[in-house]
Amino acid sequence: MNQERLKRILQGMKDRGVDEMIISDPVAIYYLLGRKIVPGERMLVLYLNIDGTSKLVINELFPQDGDVGVDLVWYNDIDDGVKILSDHMTKGKVIGIDKNWASHFLLRLQELHPELKYVNGSEIVDDVRQIKDEDEKQLMRESSKICDAVMEELIPWVVKGLTENELGAKVAELFAKHGVSEMSFDPITAYGRGGADPHHVTDDSKGKRGDSVVLDIGGFYKGYASDMTRTVFIGEASEKAREVYEIVKEANLRGIAAAKPGNRMCDVDLACRDYIESKGYGEYFTHRTGHSIGLEDHEVGDVSSVNEAIIRPGQCFSVEPGIYLLDEGIGVRVEDLVIITEDGCEVLNSVTKDLIIVEEE
Fold this sequence. Notes:
Elements lengths: L2 H14 L3 E4 L2 H8 L11 E5 L4 E6 L11 E5 L5 H7 L6 E4 L5 H10 L4 E4 L1 H9 L3 H21 L9 H14 L10 E4 H4 L16 E6 L2 E2 L2 E2 L2 E7 L4 H20 L6 H14 L11 E3 L6 E5 L12 E4 L2 E4 L4 E4 L2 E5 L4 E3 L9 E2 L3
Parallel strand pairs: 1-5, 3-4, 5-6, 11-19
Antiparallel strand pairs: 1-2, 2-3, 7-8, 8-11, 9-10, 12-13, 14-17, 15-16, 17-18
Organism: Aedoeadaptatus coxii
């Protein structure tokens, strides 16, 4: 058990008046125990009590080697796993429930103990996970460094006659070359009109001269996600495409400048959005500016116009404004990850944001 992370969660429970916690999200369990357990439909619960007691309730199908760092409570497929969990609870007045816990498990616990108050406890864990410790920051740096290297190697491939799907497969191949076997999301490798459609599904289209090419890629390195976007052009870029690109680039830089402690998440979004709107393209920036990231590509804490949460040192999130002109086949997005420092932010991506024209072969 990571004692420092546990301490922060227990403090969060105390602050919110939660006596006991049921954590079932395998990612949250990995965050605390360093064990990747994928239980499928079977119940897996890390039980935490405000008094410091902790237990992992786990099916016998998932044997664990070595010291897990917490007491193990076993059950099998013919046992009432929820009843066994209940037997180890102290039945405090307020029980924090993981937002991902299957409803049939929760309903069974409520049936056993209707007198208890059940609340969404995930916000406690999510809040702690937003603030990366030094080990996590370093892993995010290393993960992003690999992503940078892959992007540098990927860009020349946009003129080699590959389809979007083939270019996406090339992303996986390049990550594997750098020791990363799992993508953090399905890569976006979209030419022209495809990149100008935010809902576009990668297909067998090929790029042509003058196309913008949106490259949105990321992978998991030692459990931590990378995510970045660059937009390049095949052979040439029209005057309109150049204008749009420079606007998105400047919006990205303004968002990064606003990413500092004391500002709100919405301030980062508005720094990007207000600039794009001032240039007459507001209606073509159709998504939020970013999302938190770490053990998952999208974690709690979005960079949107309605999130008024105060930015704190240790947070890590993306800044990714875009403009999408479907009728003209021009799509541009520029994305970097940032870690919030004591007085600003550290940008994790180093691939140039200067407009790139990839010459045709």
